[in-house]
Structure formats: C-alpha cells, structure tokens
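Exercise 7b. Backbone tokens:
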C-alpha cells in the first residue's frame, strides 16, 4: 500500500462523508486520465479497462479486503464499473481505492493523484 497516496485520498473521503450535501470525490492519476476512481456516500465508480466481467477480476482482488462485501451494480466493458460500497472509515476506503489503482488499474505504487470534490 502507498501511505502517501492514502494520506492524500483520506481527507477527500472524510469530506464527502461528513458533508450534508451530496458530494463526489474524483481521484485521477496524474498524466493518465483513463485511470480514475470516484467516491460518493455508499458508491464507488471506477475506470474498468477490461472486457472480462468485473467479478472475475475484482472478487479475487477483494481477498485483500475480506471484510468488505461489494455489490457490482453496473459496468460497461472497457469503460467503468460501479460498486455499492459500504460506509466505513475514511482510511479503509482510501486503502481500497489505493489497492484498486495498483491492483486493477496497474498503477505504480508511487503514483501521483489529483483530487477533485464537487457537488452532484
């Protein structure tokens, strides 16, 4: 896991969770606009560049985070996957996002991330 990246992601997760407004935090890899993850309360939407159904790639990946139960609500081959994501501690959610960037989107462990928060 990438401690620096988790420390960049966590404050945005905390802000989304604590806001009375409906906010979306978008995390995008610097220099790779096709590698992104979005977080809203209870949902993660992320780039999904594969043709295989996400269950084939994400479920084995989830062994790293065995306490999480994710429900894939939609996906489009080569474009995105949307997951129901249980509310949790910002650091735990940040670790999942970090692992998604490294394990699913194949980013190097010292990636740089741009964070944008907007009202939806």
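Sequence design result:
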């Amino acid at each position: 896991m990438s401690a620096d990246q988790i420390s960049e992601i966590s404050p945005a997760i905390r802000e989304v969770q604590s806001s009375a407004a409906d906010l979306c935090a978008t995390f995008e890899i610097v220099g790779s606009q096709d590698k992104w993850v979005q977080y809203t309360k209870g949902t993660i939407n992320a780039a999904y560049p594969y043709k295989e159904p996400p269950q084939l790639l994400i479920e084995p990946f989830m062994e790293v985070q065995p306490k999480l139960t994710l429900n894939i609500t939609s996906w489009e081959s080569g474009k995105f996957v949307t997951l129901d994501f249980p509310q949790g501690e910002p650091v735990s959610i940040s670790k999942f996002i970090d692992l998604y960037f490294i394990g699913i989107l194949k980013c190097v462990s010292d990636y740089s991330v741009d964070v944008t928060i907007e009202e939806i």
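Instructor comment: The beta strands are 23-29, 32-40, 43-47, 71-76, 80-84, 113-119. The longest strand covers residues 32-40.
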